[in-house]
């Protein structure tokens, strides 16, 4: 009998569907909405970056190179030997795709600390891998990393441990001693530093790369640098490891415009500093303005978003999110956990958006 097309599908692809970021689609469809949901930077690219974009847009008929110039610059910035310590991706999401394809076979396991960014699970499952989620510990109005829990979750099938630092959505950092414990297991350890610039490179763990070959650090220009739409991310690793991961790289994955714009942005120290100062000031203002609401748990954040738990105040996160949406603000929620259904997260927006967010939340809680 003739086979059906579904009979030809890779078994672990069969149950999967396309990831749809409906909130982002909605924001593009209705530009009047306040995009306070995706941890984007509210500030547009600097004039310097825009100039580079225009220059290379006029050369868009040409293929990009393999990014030797920008990779060399990134290596130097991070005190690594050279371009071979750096792999470029279409955002750090693509970097995760490459790392996972390098280490995972169907049935292998990736350990993540939850709640966390969704891409690790998505890219793991596309390869037939199994995601193992170790929950953070919710104690004294804080969500704490659980390195012990991660170590206890290791099995012979564990091929990758991934930890975001600071974590999305909780906004806090893991202790260096805990990263060393994880690095010492020898298992490929990905430290996702997507938001590191908000607290400064001094908080980075790139120094572990020189001591532990299994440590890989990932970064992105989507956040503090404010270039999410250009899609530029990178990884830093031991030369041998980075070049093995680069074997999975789709040639010419990063376009000419993104590559050169990234080089300009990386060199624009003032541009970065302005964005970081703006964000950190606005983040503090949001937290201060909402800190008096009885029962509302606000998680201290070192990134460009703030997580809230309104469960102890007797409110549901989904009610807050739909109330805010009626007032044109898009927020992000999460499924019930730790016995609470009060989760919501806001991304720092423009000054006017932040003031409006504070007004809307106060209004909701005064109802
Ligand atoms: C922790 C973390 N890592 C990585 C990313 C991916 O960013 P990009 O693919 O734009 O580089 C995000 C985006 O929200 C994130 O929160």
UniProtKB/TrEMBL annotation:
Entry keyword annotation includes Transferase: yes
Domain of life according to the entry: Bacteria
Signal peptide stretch: none
Entry annotated with the keyword Transferase: yes
EC number per UniProt: 2.6.1.9
Ranges where the Aminotransferase class I/classII large domain occurs: 38-361
Keywords carried by this UniProt record: Aminotransferase, Pyridoxal phosphate, Transferase
GO molecular function, one term: histidinol-phosphate transaminase activity
SUPFAM superfamilies: PLP-dependent transferases
PROSITE patterns, A to Z: AA_TRANSFER_CLASS_2 (PS00599)
Cofactor dependence: pyridoxal 5'-phosphate
The family this protein is said to belong to: Belongs to the class-II pyridoxal-phosphate-dependent aminotransferase family.
Name this protein carries in UniProt: Histidinol-phosphate aminotransferase, histidinol-phosphate aminotransferase
Natural source organism: Candidatus Gottesmanbacteria bacterium GW2011_GWA2_43_14
